[in-house]
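pasting input
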Amino acid sequence: MKQNNLAVKLVNISKIYQLHHEKPTLIENIFRKNSREKFVALNNVNLEIEKGDKVGIIGPNGSGKTTLLKIISGIATPNQGKVQTWGKLVSLIDLSAGFHPELTGIENVYQNAMLLGMNRMETKNKLREIADFADIGGFFDAPMYTYSDGMKLRLGFSVAIAAEPDVLILDEGVAVGDENFQKKSSDKIEEFFKQRKTVIVVSHWLAYVGKNCQRVIWMEDSKIKMIGGADRVIRMYQRR
Amino acid sequence: MIRLSIDQQKWWELLMMMTEKEIKARYKMAVFGFLWIFLNPLLQMLVLGFIFQFFIPIKTANYFEFLFPGLLAWNFFSYTVTKNTPMYINERALIQKAKFPRETIVLSVVLSNLFHFLMALVVFVLWEALVVHELHWWRWWLLPVIMMWLAFLTTGFSLLFSSLNVKWRDVNFGVQAIMPLWFYATPVVYSLDLLPEWLSRWLYLNPMTAIMEMLRWTTLGLSINWISVGWSLLVTLVIFAIGVYVFKKESPFFDDWV
């Protein structure tokens, strides 16, 4: 099979959202049927990402970068086209999302890890490792509402990397927490860049993309405007 | 044992974890903790029982005995459906975080409430067996079947309402408005033979009616209309099928709307 070295394959992907303006009244709703505006977030996008590729996605706000990531990670479903992914996909965006404030750190680790696709046994075996990496000390078995924002991010990051993703999705804000933890987390990310893992980065920070990625996708107006070697695409992007 | 595939096993573990979370999160910081499982229906029963025994001439030795199992079943149904209807909106953080089987959110609420229902029912059965000494064992065996049946009906409504509520938030208001009315349209505090026939015939359209009657047929040996049982079974299957169908159709697009 030729596709065995692919991590992500998108064929003819289109995603259309319905725009929500000021909520129409019930009467308006009844008399003006189908007046909802559509917004095309992705327009017929084709993309192949090979295993081990480090890919950067750049482009202005509203060009479809986030939607593209949502489609790749399977959180959103395209209205048209076919998505195929190989391997475990984990996103490092919105790390502290999905934590329950009443539950303890450990209980939240179980929930988060299993939502990311680990099973109970794997999570149990990794618990020590996660606690060590997050380094939140005695807070690990305290309820989440006692955590600072930084601690939540650290725990979220530790769970996500413990899931051993094959495909890692991140944005430029990945270095989280205090100075010490920022170093630790960016070292960990460096490690992913060096390994044969697929990494997809969304960023406005062109220097970061240029340094870490070989291929760059330039999104503009819901389409891929350009795709190719990092230096060339970034140069064209800056000259636009 | 049925052998599960790895995916099915993962799905089941995820569901169990979410159910556990539901149960744990509810009683965090509550001094009485899990005691509330019994305290809640008990207090409710005492108040309702005290008031309604003056209004409703039930021909049974003990009105509380008549009331309790029905009340547990009704509470399970109404709590679960009410909690589940806005669930995909409330849990938007989870939906936006990762791709996972969306049905586990709704099913975990059903299972955690089923656990509460079961605990309270076990206490009731023990009470009847040890204190009242009135168990017709061959009928009491039906209790798990009735519970399963009710769980299917509740799941059907939960999937249907929660899926629709993602796009149309009116559904939640509708459910909140209808639940108290539904309570009175279900023979929880009264029995159908107290009503004029033209009215009780209408109440048989309510699938919860037959559940109540089956519970009382099982626990107290009261009479039952088997045609209504058949009808309720049909309604349960239809609601469940519609719930699953709507959920399957809508769930890939939950992220677009939350």
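fyi Chain B has a mean pLDDT of 88.
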